[in-house]
Amino acid sequence: MRDLSGVFKAYDIRGIVGEQLDADVVRDIGAAFARQVLGERGAIVIGHDMRASSPELASAFADGALREGADVVMIGLASTDMLYYASGSLDLPGAMFTASHNPAKYNGIKLCRAGAAPVGQDTGLTDIQREVEAGTEPTPGARPGTLSTRDLLHDYVAYLRGLVDLSGSRPLRVVVDAGNGMGGHTVPAVFDGLPIDVVPMYFELDGTFPNHEANPLDPKNIVDLRAKVLEVGADAGLAFDGDADRCFVVDERGEPVPPSAITALVATRELAKDPGGTIIHNLITSKAVPEIVAEHGGKPVRTRVGHSFIKAEMATTGAIFGGEHSAHYYFRDFWKADTGMLAAMHVLAALGEQDGPLSTLTSAYSRYAASGEINSTVGDQAGRMAAVKDAFAARDGVRADELDGLTVELPGGGWFNLRPSNTEPLLRLNVEAADDSAVAALRDEVLAIVRA
């Protein structure tokens, strides 16, 4: 019996190609997914990124699905949000082959149901794992499905442009670092013919990532972008991760704009279109986000970290937009799925509608200092969490909750969240306070307990 516990994650499937994932395993995953969704839809749409292994694995998945009687629509090279567009617009379940920002030796599968509805551990992924591990035989008498191909890039572009109109923007020069990922495929099409002068960096599709990791969350991977923005006098810089579903922004000074500020900025734009709407934010985004949402007449709703929780809350509340500290941005008008491209278009539209620099525009949405995420390797996660909780519980005016890890709010406005990693022996700390010195003091106090 296979053991696939190392590759089936909370939200997707991911592992080292040739060791944990190969064509045989993926073929069986495709068959299991087809059996799961055939009662809902008769076809599956499949896309893949630029990794060397992606075409073969996508083809193997298709073979497994076809064997079970599902029709398959192959859309070829795609960003993850382009696959979500395909799933939403065609109303079909989907499979995207990518390992996002992971190194070249990895690959993976992001699955969704029709309308880009997420598939996670509690919504089908565990059942697929169980079937594949058990080696379930093909369905007897199943008539093979049919295979077709479609090019949806231009339809995807037209849909995004219908949501954010950049045609009337003042001319902008924007440096874009695609990190040799799928942004190199989608960005030229999205901005073609618009008053946006794109200065490209690393647009060549190359799954070996020869220039830097396609993970803009790590500061070292946006060093080149920041320098290029200053060199060419750009109005802004954008950095996409490997599958281009996340987008990071730097301003005209080459300074990173916090994803929380982008969340607040986009939220105000969505609320202008839909007054009184609900905005989702995870519990690690800045407290400026719910403040600004409320000030603009919206209803902020706080949720756990992770796209399945965001999407579930959006479905429950009818939210118009959601944002995470990790630069995932979710839109009701994009089937509640995340798309970094649409968020980037909102930022450029806001910038192009006025004459000031991006730093001035976004400063209105950045009210507090933050530590960023700090990881600590610990052997006893539960014990260290309990020690931190006990240390702060006795203080006057302290409020704590355990919606996701431990969140502690202190008198005076400072707060922190401490939560365990699902996959590693780590505790992740995020701190926010009025200024850098207050952040440093609170950070050091918590870390002293965590690392004792």
UniProtKB/TrEMBL annotation:
This is Phosphomannomutase/phosphoglucomutase. Residues 7-137, 155-254, 261-368 form the Alpha-D-phosphohexomutase alpha/beta/alpha domain. The keyword Phosphoprotein applies. InterPro entries: A-D-PHexomutase_a/b/a-I, A-D-PHexomutase_a/b/a-I/II/III, A-D-PHexomutase_a/b/a-II, A-D-PHexomutase_a/b/a-III, A-D-PHexomutase_C, A-D-PHexomutase_C_sf, Alpha-D-phosphohexomutase_SF. CDD domains: PMM_PGM. One of its GO terms (biological process) is carbohydrate metabolic process. It comes from Actinophytocola xinjiangensis. Keywords: Isomerase, Magnesium, Metal-binding, Phosphoprotein. Gene3D superfamilies: Alpha-D-Glucose-1,6-Bisphosphate, subunit A, domain 3 (3.40.120.10), Alpha-D-phosphohexomutase, C-terminal domain (3.30.310.50). SUPFAM superfamilies: Phosphoglucomutase, C-terminal domain (SSF55957), Phosphoglucomutase, first 3 domains (SSF53738). Belongs to the phosphohexose mutase family.
